Amino acid sequence: xxxxNSVFHQVLKHVPxxxxxxxxxxxxxxxxxxxLTSKGQFLALLFGQLAGASSLREIEAGLISQRARLYxxxxxxxxxxxxxxxNARRPAALYGDLFAHMAAAxxxxxxSAAPAGIWRILDATRVQVSSLSGGWVAAVKxxxxxxxxxxxxxxxxxxxxxxxxxxTVNDITPAKAMPIEPGMTYVFDLAYYDYGWWxxxxxxxxxxxxxxxxxxxxxxxxxxxxxxxxxxxxxxxxSVIADRIxxxxxxxxxxxxxxxxxxxxxxxxRLSTGKTIRLVTNDLxxxxxEIADLYKQRWQIELFFKWIxxxxxxxxxxxxxxxxxxxQVYVALIAYMLLRAAKATQKAIEQPTTFLRLVRLNxxxxxxxxxxxxxxxPTVADNRQMTLFDx
Length: 391
Hints:
Blueprint: H1 7-12, H2 17-27, H3 38-51, H4 56-65, H5 67-72, H6 80-89, H7 93-109, E1 119-128, E2 139-140, E3 143-153, E4 158-166, H8 172-177, E5 185-187, H9 195-203, E6 207-211, E7 219-224, E8 239-247, E9 264-270, E10 276-281, H10 288-296, H11 299-311, H12 322-343, H13 352-361
Parallel strand pairs: 1-5, 5-6
Antiparallel strand pairs: 1-3, 2-3, 3-4, 6-10, 7-8, 8-9, 9-10
Helix pairs in contact: 2-7, 3-4, 3-12, 4-6, 6-12, 7-12
């Protein structure tokens, strides 16, 4: 009879284990480790993400129930207290670097021949943490949460950078610290309203698309004719009603000079709801419809946030320390990358949510990952094998 690995084992084949071992040595994650190695910790947390376990005790029970098949995947049973200690003490940077490597590898797979396709979306979302997470998470209106600052690649449909901070940290702060990729197009919302950062993007040869605040007045130097867009567009796409070139205010608060001194472009768009928004970009040549469509595509990162919160285990944290929360978030996004890689190996299931549900239901079953939706024929006994009967 043909042998099949478990679905969990097949998903793990997409983990770059050579890179993982190198990172374990680099961060000395297994230094003075007696029982649970970093690989065992990673497999236990990954099992919890894919199985939908919502607590350490549930992960422990699930591992014990699948002891035999877990052994063939390289994992082991882990006590709840042991896993909690590992999450609190093992370096979270190990999993952060592993996620960064996998995100870079996923980006390289996507064809980047078309310059118009090279762009990033920036945004942040909040994740609630336990009320016991005092000392490192500031409470706002009685609620404690952390912020996930994500740089999203819409071509690969995956995040390419992640920062975890407290909820009081402004979104622009991690954005200023990130490396700027020359020639890239960055799309973001009003949370990244910083003229100095816009000037840095422009100096690096990058294009940015964002919104203008209502109190920002543009000194108009030229106005372009807007063509009639009534034909060929859906009513839900909105329409461009103004296209102007001008200068942002020369002075900022506290008598500071605006570093963004080059001309910018203001594009006014009327949405299907009747509301109008003003977009600003340093691209003076692209069609106005292209700029408006770029900003509309920013909703892809909102859909990504919604998907991971609904389908992965990050809305309920498994620990109270900052290190444990960071590890859980990184492992959740690594699980997202692994699910995308595993889904790409088959064609039968198109919807990511459906694929995750079938993986979850068949996680420790021995069946091909490209046949999760098909009926499995019964096992045929080999008549050449000797059969023993109880007497």
